[in-house]
Amino acid sequence: MFYKTIISFVIIFLSTTITFSDETVFNGNFVQGGIIIGQNKFAKKVLFNGKNLQISKDGYFIFGFGRNHESSSTLKIIKKDKDEIIKYDLNIEKTIYKIEKIDGLSNKMVTPGPEFYKKIKEDRDLIKKSINEKYIVDKFPLKFIKPTEGRISGIYGSQRILNGIKKNPHGGLDIAAPAGTPIRATSDGKVFLAAKGLYYTGNIVIINHGYELQSMYIHMKDINVKKGDLVKQGQIIGTVGSTGRSTGPHLHWNIYWNKTRINPELLLTISKWNFLF
Prior knowledge:
With about 280 residues, this protein is mainly β. Helices cover about 10% and strands about 45% of the residues.
C-alpha cells in the first residue's frame, strides 16, 4: 500500500509542557528522562523510533526518554481513513545530572562478597521478568500522584558515590519519611510483583499501568498487596521502610516506560495539564 501524502519534518523543540502540532497534542517534557503523553484522535498507528505504540480508543499514546537518550528521535503517525503520514522530528534536550555522595552503608551492600552473588542474580531476574511482562488495558493512565509525602532525599539520574565508590546512576526518586508512612499507588494498575527480602531493594512492589508504563516501590516495610491484585490510584499498597540497601526509612520510587527508567518527577507534571485533553 502506498501513502499518497507525507507530512514530514514537523519539529518539536526543547522541554515543553504542552505542544500542539497539527491535530496532535503533546504533553510532557522533551528532555532526557522525560515522558510524553500524546493524542491524535485520527491516529491509526503511531511509531516512536520505529516502535509501534499502543493507542487508546481516544487516540492517546505514551513514550519516553531514558537518562542518556540521544538528542533526536522520530515519531510517525499514520492516520485513519486517509492515506497520510505525519512525521515529527523530536529534539531532546540534554539533562545535567547531580553527583550524590552517600556514606555509612555497610560494606556488604556496596561491594557484596561472592556468597551474595546467587541471591543478587535471582533478585534481578525476578525484577526483570516482572518488568518484561505485558499488560493490555483499554483505560489510558492520564493522572498520576506522588505515592507518599516526605523529604526528597535522592533524585533521578544523579551519579551515586557510595562509601567513596562510584556506582550506577540513581534510577528513581527517593522520598524520606517515617517508617510506617502509607504508600499509595500512583495510578490504576495490576500488581506484577510483591516480594520481600530482596538483597538491594528489600521489600518491593511493581505495578503495571498498561501502555508499557510501570511503577516500582522499593525499601518498603509492609506490603499490603499481592501479585495479580488490581489496584486503584491512591490505594494504600504498603508502608515506608528501610529494607535492602538503605541508610534510613524512605521510599525509592521508579517509573519505567518500555523497560527504561524515566524521571518520576516529570511524570507528575503531566497530571497538572489533563484538562487540556
